[in-house]
Structure formats: C-alpha cells, structure tokens
Specification:
630 residues; eight-stranded mixed β-sheet; six-stranded parallel β-sheet; 24 helices; globular
C-alpha cells in the first residue's frame, strides 16, 4: 500500500511540475509578445534596419513551440511582399533617413525574389517622382552570392577587414542514394514519365544522367548570367569577373587578404568593424543618445511593417498564395495543403465580394492529386465569371505549373523556374534488406493485389503494371491541362515537357507563360480585366493567418536573439551553404518516404534558392546530427 501511495505522489508531483512549466511558458511568451509588440505611434526619425537573419520567402512558415524549446532556435523568415512594401514606404517617408541592410546572417532567396528586393532598394537609393534618393548602407563580415546581389544596390557596401567575400555561383554536388540503397538491400520501385524527370535519379543512379546534366547546365547558365547582369547593373564599376574566373589567383596575389582584394576590385566601399559602421550610420540617422558609441537612432523592421498595413479600401481582388511543398490534406502557413488552400478560396468565393482572382504560385510541386484538387477549386472562381491571373514567383514547377493551368493569363519573371511537366512515383520495399538479417515473408492472397504494395515482400508484376499505367495516365492529364490552357496540341506540349525545367525567359518563348511581370503587375491586370478603376481596388490576401500562439513563439525567439552575432568569414559562409545542401537532401528523402505516392515535383529548384534550407529540413538535419554527436 505504501508503494502505491508513493507512486501516486510521484505521479501527482510530475503532473504539478508539468502544469507549472506550461504556465510559466505561457506567461513568459505572453510577456515577450506584449513587450515586443510594435507600437505604431512610436516610430520616429532614424535608420530603417533590415537585419535579414534568414531567407526571403513568399510565405513564412508558422513557428514551432518544439523548436523554440529544443534549444536549436527558430529560423526567421522574411515575407517578400513585406520587405518590398517597407522599402517603397521608406523611400517616401521623411522619418527614414537611411536604410541599413545587415546581411551578416542572410539566408538567401530565389533569384526572382532577390531581383524584386534589389529593385526596391534601387528605388530608395535613386529616388523617384523627381525626388532625390536616400542612402542605403549594407554591412556583412562576408557576403554570400545572394547577399551581394542585394548589397550591390546599396549606396555604400561595408565589409569587415577580417572577413571577405568569395562568389560560388549556382551548382555543386547532389547526393545520390543508389549505392547505399543497394548495400542496404532496399528495392526502390520507380514509376515515371518524362525523359528529363530527374527527381527520381538519386534513387536509381549513382550519378546524374547526361539528359539531367544537360538540363541543369542550361538552367544554371541562365540564372548565373542573370546574377552577373544584376550585379553589374547595380554596381557597374565593380570588377567581379576575376573573382568568378580565377579566385585562387586573385586571393593569392592579395596574400590571402580577401577583404583587401574585395576593396581593390571595387566590390566594397569601406572596410570597418561594426563600430565603425555604426558611427557612419549615426552620422546620417543621428546618435542614439545615452547609449554606447556607434549606436544610432533605429526604426525596427517589424514595427515599420506593422505601422504600414496593406490598404483595405475599394473593391477586392483576391490573391490566393500557393507557396511551398504541395501536400494532400491540411497544412500550416509555409506549405500547401490542398484542403486548406481550397477551403480558403471557396470560403472567399462564398461571400461573393471578389471582383477578380490572382493565384500567386511559388512552389516546386509535390502531390499530383493535391495539385489537381486546387486547380478544380480555382475553376470555381471561373464559374463565377471572375478573371483569373496567375503570378509565378520564384518557382512554379511541376505541381506548381499544374495549378497554374487554371489561369486566363500567366505572369512570370525572367528568373522564374517553371515547367518540369512530368510526374513520378517511388515505392521502397525491403525484401532484400530483411533477407540480410534472416527474415522472410509468406502469406495467403485472394487476389493479385492482396497486401500490395508489399513493403516486406516486394511488389508483384500486376502492381508494377498498375502503378506505371497510373503514372502514364497522370502525365496525359497533365499534358491535357497544359494544352487546353496554352492553346496548344498535346503533341506540342509533350515536345517541351518530358520533365524539363525552364527559366522564365525560355518559358515565355515556348508560350508556357504570357508576359513578364511581378505580383503587382498581375494584380493590376486582374483588376483591369474586371473593369476596376486604377485607384478603386485593393489586394485581399486569402491566406491562413498564423495562430496567436505561433506569433508569441516567434516574437519570443526574436527577442532572445543576439543582434550582434556574426555568421563568420567567407570560409564559414561557404561551409554553411554545403550544410544546407545536406539539410535539403534529408528533407527530400523524408518527403519521398512520407509524401504522396504520385508526385509532380522539381529536383533542380532547390539548388538555386539561396543558402538556407527550409525550416523543417533544418530541424531534421539538427536532429540527425545530434544523434551522431556532431
């Protein structure tokens, strides 16, 4: 009896401790949220600081309480439209004396997104409407390729004398799992259509096929040429060509002093510490009185975004965002669950107050079924006679292109990654793996499909035939959707499909898109088609809002970050980019194992999205490394 009472006391104590921890966590997060909540009235004169310590994305992912408590921290993401809107507001706001770009921990972004932000920075720097511009000052210990693309648009580029910038360009190694799969005895059953559908190759080959390499080389050449053109246009006197062609010779000639080599080539304007940089900003924005030297009057980014909300007057042009991996069912912000996105649209259509619809696509694809479900939901807007305009963001490939076939007109940008019209399926079975440890399988079957697909005993010919036929039927549906949307024959689409990936410029030539332009161009076109006046509408974003709890978690994480932390020198930043490749590989394996059986997804798309992995992939990588003590 004493033993029972003792055990009961322990259980009650554990319960009380958990309740106490939960209460402390809740009130701690609540306090942090209230303490860090932007005060719209508190914005005064100073420097608008964009400390981009994460990637620029189309739609931010919802913060995880587990990630916050695990000690690994939460990766901050910056929504593209918020960054651009803030810069455009700052260009005409007399309170903003200078814009500061802190790129020490910048997580990168896709080329199309960075081009939008770069253009907004130039509008601040150069001014508009006959008005002079404002200073834009950038600082980093070492710039990544993505970071320098933004910094090139600044009035002054600062760099640490102990740092230095080296350019890597798109490309690098891709993990291929075929050798490991064979060693483990795993049998990867691959069903595919399309000569160029390279997503399955890591599971079927030990190296890239010639067709896949040909495709990637063409894409990367276009994107890299665009990077060079963008940098040269923003900073015409910079001599960055030797850093691309013969970096070893350049740095050796500078006796290993990368920062000095950057300065001599005109890549940066000033070498200095953060203190030096802060004094320079203070000379423009004003000194933050009563604080240490080098601190300047600051306008915080989050407060500035909150103080400049989106307009709400006039008619509504709905903007449906399809950003992230496309999955079946429900999803949180930052990924695309077909049920969630379709419900957002159908609920908005039920109110009968939308005048037009813009579908903003920024996705490398995913589930073919989910893509079709969302396309059918968009067709409901067409049934209401609403003009439908598609705006392709950084990437609209595979499932992202499937969804785009619902539009009346498609906008893209020269560096939009699109196409990849093809589908595949992968089913792993482990019969040979089990044999290695002495396990076998047996059973009774009443039909050829009993127990199929059998992950323990392997698939049979009937199952393989059915899956392959299903994939081929899905491909025909994909081709048919594209042919109908683009006014082409299925044969013409098949010629440019086969899983190939195209840059936006080539896609325009192939008639896969209609016109170059960004999101605002697409919104304006949708309004024009609906007969709305230029100043008589606003964009109504049909998005799932983050929960109040998720907002508190993000604010708590942001309030505990070290604002002066450095991401390291050029070699550290280069190593971080390789770490991101590993994270993306782990994420891809997870998606194959847990995602839809039939997928329309682009492999090449992840390789040009900057140096930061997706938040979920980063957490998975941290978990794996921790298990191995790394």
């Amino acid at each position: 009896m004493k033993l029972v009472r003792g055990a009961w006391k322990i259980l009650v104590g554990i319960k009380d401790a958990l309740v106490l921890i939960a209460m402390l966590l809740f009130f701690g997060l609540l306090f942090a949220a209230l303490a860090s909540k932007p005060n719209k009235a508190a914005i005064g004169d100073g420097a608008l600081v964009l400390k981009l310590d994460g990637p620029i994305v189309e739609q931010t992912q919802e913060a995880s309480a587990f990630a916050s408590l695990s000690g690994n921290g939460i990766q901050r993401e910056y929504r593209l439209r918020d960054v651009v809107r803030s810069l455009d507001k700052a260009a005409k706001d007399d309170r903003v004396k200078v814009v500061v770009l802190d790129l020490d921990s910048f997580g990168g972004g896709y080329p199309a997104a960075l081009e939008d932000v770069g253009a907004a920075l130039r509008r601040v720097r150069d001014g508009s409407d006959g008005k002079g511009g404002k200073p834009v000052l950038a600082y980093a210990t070492a710039y990544t390729d993505s970071g320098y693309r933004l910094a090139a648009n600044a009035s002054e580029i600062w760099e640490s004398p102990m740092g230095g910038t080296l350019f890597m360009g798109p490309g690098g190694s891709q993990l291929y799992y075929k050798g490991l799969i064979d060693k483990l005895g795993v049998n990867a059953h691959v069903y595919r259509v399309g000569k160029y559908k390279s997503f399955v190759e890591p599971y079927t080959r030990t190296e890239a096929s010639p067709e896949a390499k040909e495709e990637v080389v063409k894409l990367y050449q276009v994107l890299f040429a665009n990077w060079q053109q963008s940098v040269a246009r923003a900073r015409p006197k910079a001599k960055f060509a030797p850093f691309l062609a013969t970096p070893g010779a350049v740095i050796t000639a500078a006796q290993g002093d990368i920062a000095k080599a950057n300065m001599d080539a005109g890549l940066v304007d000033k070498l200095g510490t953060r203190l030096d940089f802060g004094k320079r900003v203070a000379a423009i924005a004003g000194v933050d009185s009563g604080k240490a030297a080098g601190l300047f009057k600051t306008i915080k980014y989050d407060a500035y975004v909150a103080a400049n909300p989106l307009p709400t007057g006039g008619d509504k042009v709905g903007v449906l965002t399809i950003a992230g991996d496309i999955i079946d069912g429900k999803s949180k912000a930052g990924s695309v669950g077909s049920d969630t996105v379709s419900k957002l649209l159908l609920d908005a259509l039920a109110k009968k107050d939308l005048k037009a619809l813009v579908v903003r696509v920024d996705s490398p694809g995913g589930s073919a079924l989910a893509s079709e479900d969302m396309r059918r939901a968009i067709q409901e807007a067409k049934a209401q006679k609403l003009p439908i305009v598609v705006s392709m963001g950084s990437v609209a490939a595979s499932g992202g292109y499937w969804v785009s076939t619902a539009g009346d007109m498609v906008f893209a940008q020269p560096t939009t990654i699109t196409g990849s019209i093809g589908i595949f399926g992968i089913i792993p079975t482990f019969e040979n793996t089990l044999k290695k440890v002495g396990l076998t399988t047996d059973g009774v079957r009443t039909t050829p499909l009993s127990g199929q697909p059998d992950i323990y005993g392997g698939t049979n010919p009937e199952t393989d035939a059915i899956f392959q036929a299903g994939i081929e039927n899905g491909y025909r549906q994909f081709i048919t959707r594209v042919a109908g949307a683009r006014k082409m024959t299925p044969e013409q689409v098949n010629e440019i499909a086969q899983g190939r990936v195209w840059d936006g410029g080539t896609a325009l030539q192939l008639h896969l898109v209609d016109k170059f332009g960004g999101l605002q161009d697409a919104i304006a076109e949708a309004a024009r088609r609906a007969g709305l006046k230029a100043d008589g509408y606003h964009a109504e974003y049909l998005e799932k809002k983050p929960s109040a709890f998720a907002k508190m978690i993000q604010q708590f994480a942001d309030s505990n970050k070290d604002d002066d932390a450095s991401a390291g020198d050029a070699f550290t930043r280069m190593a971080a980019e390789r770490r991101a490749v590993f994270a993306r590989a782990l994420g891809d394996v997870t998606r194959i194992g847990t995602g839809a059986a039939i997928q329309a997804r682009c492999l090449e798309c992840d390789g040009v999205g900057g140096n930061a992995p997706r938040a979920g992939d980063a957490r998975l990588m941290d978990f794996v490394l921790a298990r191995f003590g790394l």
